[in-house]
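Technical annex, item 7. During the second reporting period the consortium partners agreed on a shared format for inverse folding records so that results from different sites could be compared directly. Each record opens with the tokenized structure and is followed by the designed sequence. A conforming record, contributed by the partner at site C, is shown below for reference.
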């Protein structure tokens, strides 16, 4: 059947399976992705079905994994790299920023590096240090990288397909606390463009813009606000770099207000760029300043405190109150 109800994790697994079946140049590589099937079981069963030459268990060496993927891409392969947890990506940051992101420009367009780096990110799973980071802005700041994050199983399936097919390197952030959320996936639907935002819920009073794990929180906030007679529009940005400013602008021109929500710290987060750009574009439409809701400018806290750290329903609704008070 083309339409299935799947958890987000299974949708990613099916997407990888489809890519491996379709293109013999696609490889999956990373720590424990083979025999174990990944710590979140995203790659479960793939090595058994496609062999150790295409689903490759690597050493615990992120810099080496990404460096190897760059070499494979130069030889015509399409590597899909898994970084086991968000906080483990930093040993590979040099390879990603100084090599992967630069080769296309360095070669004046003659070299393409179709590498996808999958990173489970964000909190909400009660993990230890270095397992709950949200480093998307660090990569969005780097020219030459595309940065995306799905919020539901359908986007997980299709956005990963599109990322693998892209000739540019893509950092693919997977909201790990949504891995078990279920939704319908149509494996025969023709997807929209990878970097286009989507209106999840229409509204007239305030626009909530989010991506990845926070889309569900914003949708719940909109439902709660509706009980008080407030109409909130929810945008799933889907892509952090490039950003679909046109869709955001169109929404803000209707509502007159914008609140950007993400798990990452507000300080120098992606919401800052959105706020600045939309203020420039929509100055005469705005009825209130663009507000931001996100994590605090502190190291990610121990698991017992993460509910206080992560933006939740109350903090989003408080921002709605503040915006409507202007």
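Designed sequence (site C submission):
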């Amino acid at each position: 059947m083309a339409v299935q109800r799947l958890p987000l994790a299974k949708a990613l697994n099916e997407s990888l399976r489809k890519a491996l079946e379709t293109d013999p140049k696609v490889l999956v590589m990373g720590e424990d992705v083979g025999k174990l099937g990944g710590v979140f079981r995203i790659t479960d069963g793939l090595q058994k079905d496609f062999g150790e030459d295409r689903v490759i268990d690597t050493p615990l060496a992120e810099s080496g994994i990404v460096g190897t993927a760059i070499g494979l891409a130069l030889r015509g392969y399409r590597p899909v790299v898994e970084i086991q947890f968000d906080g483990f990506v930093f040993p590979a940051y040099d390879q990603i920023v100084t090599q992967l992101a630069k080769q296309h420009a360095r070669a004046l367009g003659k070299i393409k590096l179709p590498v996808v780096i999958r990173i489970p990110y964000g909190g909400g799973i009660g993990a230890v240090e270095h397992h709950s980071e949200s480093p998307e802005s660090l990569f969005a700041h780097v020219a030459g990288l595309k940065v995306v994050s799905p919020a539901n199983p359908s986007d997980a399936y299709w956005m990963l397909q599109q990322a693998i097919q892209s000739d540019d390197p893509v950092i693919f952030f997977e909201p790990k606390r949504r891995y078990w959320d279920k939704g319908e996936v149509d494996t025969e639907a023709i997807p929209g463009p990878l970097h286009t935002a989507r209106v999840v819920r229409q509204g007239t009073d305030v626009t909530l813009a989010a991506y990845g794990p926070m889309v569900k929180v914003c949708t719940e906030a909109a439902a709660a606000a509706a009980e008080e007679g407030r109409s909130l529009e929810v945008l799933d940005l889907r892509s952090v770099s490039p950003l679909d400013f046109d869709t955001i602008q169109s929404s803000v021109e209707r509502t007159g207000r914008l609140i950007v929500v993400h798990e990452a710290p507000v300080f120098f987060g992606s919401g800052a760029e959105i706020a600045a750009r939309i203020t420039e574009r929509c100055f005469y439409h705005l009825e209130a300043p663009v507000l931001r809701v996100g994590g605090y400018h502190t190291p990610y806290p121990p698991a017992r405190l993460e509910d206080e750290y992560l933006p939740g329903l109350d903090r989003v609704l408080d921002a709605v109150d503040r915006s409507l008070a202007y």
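The radius of gyration is 20 Å. DSSP finds twelve helices and 14 strands in the chain. All partners now use this format for quarterly exchanges.
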